[in-house]
Structure formats: C-alpha cells, structure tokens
Design a protein that fits this description.
- With 387 residues, the chain is α+β, with helices and mostly antiparallel strands.
- It starts with a strand and ends in a 27-residue tail after the last helix.
- It holds the Pfam family DUF4192.
- This is DUF4192 domain-containing protein.
Amino acid sequence: MSAQAQPVSDSSTTVSARGVDDLLGFVGHTFGGLPVDSVVMISLSGSRLRAGVRFDAPDPAACTGAGLREWAQTAAGTLARDTGADACLALLIEPAAGPRPHRPLAARIREAFADAGVPVAAAWVVSEGMSWAWTAQGEGIDVGPDAQPRPLRDPRLSTVSLAMTMQGSVFADVPESERVPTPVAGRPGWPAPQAHDAADAMCWLDTWADVLASDREAGPVLLRRLAAPLVHRGWRDALVALAVAGPQPPGAVQARSEGQPGRQSRTSEPSVAAVSGGLASLYLADTGVRPCWEWLDQLRRLLREIAEHAPAEVAVEALAVAGWVSWARGHGSAAAAHLQSALRADPGHTLSRLLAQLLRRGEVAGWACDPRTAWRPESASRVDPVA
C-alpha cells in the first residue's frame, strides 16, 4: 500500500504513506490521538489521503444481521458526503487482544461502501502495537503478508506524522477517559437577566466574545456572569452561533445598550441571525463553512468548568453544549459521556435528548465529514486535552 498524505496546512507538500503506521500517524494528527474502540475511515482521491471520519465501534451485541448492515450503511452514507472521494481505507482500532466481535463487520463495510461509491481499498485491525488485515470469515480476500499480525512502529515517529508535525500539526495524547462533571442538585440558583431583555443579551454575548478571544481564566464572579443566562434557551443558542462564527471585523454591527451609549458590539448580526435562520444546520454541524474551532474549543473548556460549579439547571445546559462541541469535533464517545451526565440530572432536557438520538443513530457531524471544515487538534492545543 502506498498513498499520498496532505499535511494539515496550506502547503502543497505531500509525503508517501507506505504502511499502517503512516496511516495511524495521519489519524493521530486528524483526531489528536488514536481513538480506541473506533472504526476510522480514511477517504481517498486517487492515491491521496483526504479526510478521516471516526465512528464508535458498534455494540458487540448488535454485531449480527440487520444491526451490522444498518451500521455499515450509515457509515457509508456519511463518508460519501465527501464528494471528492473515490475510495477509502478502513482501520478498526481495538483496545486489547482477545475476542473479535467486530470481525463480521468487515464484509458489511465492504458491501455498503461499494454501494455508496467509495469502495474499501484495504482494511486493518490495530491492537496493542500490532496490525493485521480486517476480513470476515469466508470473504476469501488475498491480503498477502497482512494475514498475520505484524508489529507497528510508534505512529508519532512515522514519516507522515513527522511531516505533519513540521507543518505545525499536533499529535496529542488522548486520555482513556475524561472526567465529566456531574450536576449537583440543591445548589442555590444563580440569578439571570430577563430572557426578553435584548440589550442584556447583547452585553452578555459581548462578554463571552471577549473571553473566547483570550486565554485568560474566568474567575468565580465572571464565570457566574457567563453561566447564569444559559437557562434561557434562546441566549444559549445565540452563544453557540457566536462561537461558531468567531471574531468579526470591526464595525460589523453597532449596538447601543442601555447605560453604554455608543458601545461597539463584538457580536455580529449574522452570528445571531443564524439561530433563527439555520438552527437545525447549526446543531447538525452542517453549515458548509468552517467554524471557528479556536472559539468552540475555548467554549467547551469554559462550559465544563461551569458545569463543575453551577446549579444543576445551569450545569445541564453547559454539559449539553459541551457535548455538542465534542460531537462536532468527531468525538462521539466524549459527546455521549457529557450528554448522559446531563440526562441523568434532567431526563427531559430537549437538546441533550435530541443530540443523544443523533449519536444512537450513528450520525457524524457534517463538519467532521469535510476536510475543509473538520476539527484539527492544533486548534485545541492551547485550551484542553482532546477527548
């Protein structure tokens, strides 16, 4: 196997990926580390690696019949959204050696991806520093030397990884698990402004914009000011739109708030308008435009901090949006953990329930399917570990 990898930069430099360790290097830079218990599909255009899309490996209990077929068809439909792809590679990254419940999935993947127009050129299992061909019993595919497990080099030292590092990309270490805050019932409520006060809403969004644009820590007073209005769903949605839009040019909008005559707002009209005009595409992370990942990563970090200290009703909103950012990054396991924490505290929480339903269906964020809009770990290196 030999393919060309395009490092994450504006450079046109390409390097050859000649083995599984090089592919893992590409995956590590795409996702910030090697996502265990996952299926990673890498789209190809000719011999050029385009994008990696990660899926949680299906529940072993569902690895039979219709469940396998449905999982594979959903995954194939997701990768097929990369219209520049004409084939793909598959990697099953398993946590440890032992029973192989996902082995039958290989045949279903080949069938579904061929039907979707992105046939699987090759597939491997990766576990405990070894790799071997991923095939189902009876497929009869000649995989040559990959039929037997072969040792892997450290993916961080692979040719592709070193080339991408030189281009400024980051291969981070993904922790086995990230502690997810748990909402605490009984904490005193935090007073919030009136939901219908537009001037207060704009001032609040301006404060968030200042914090998202900086590296500074938010002290207890500022954190409470940022957090309390999250209970207003419209304000919460406007904050998500603000973070997606990122910094706006000076003068994009002039806002005159009570008590602040002539104050120039950092919040642009389009970022707030996106809530009323495109809320579905916003939360499906399918706007077709690269979001401001730097602000979204900072937002996620602050929301996790808020969830540690806020009253339960505020913490639930913070966890839902933090989970959404994880999902938009392509990190389904972290998203699920945050949403489950929110739903344990409030089983009826609308946003958490809708996002959890997307995860159960195996949906992948639209941004994660396009190499032009997908999250890259270097955007998060200043704010938090990848999970």
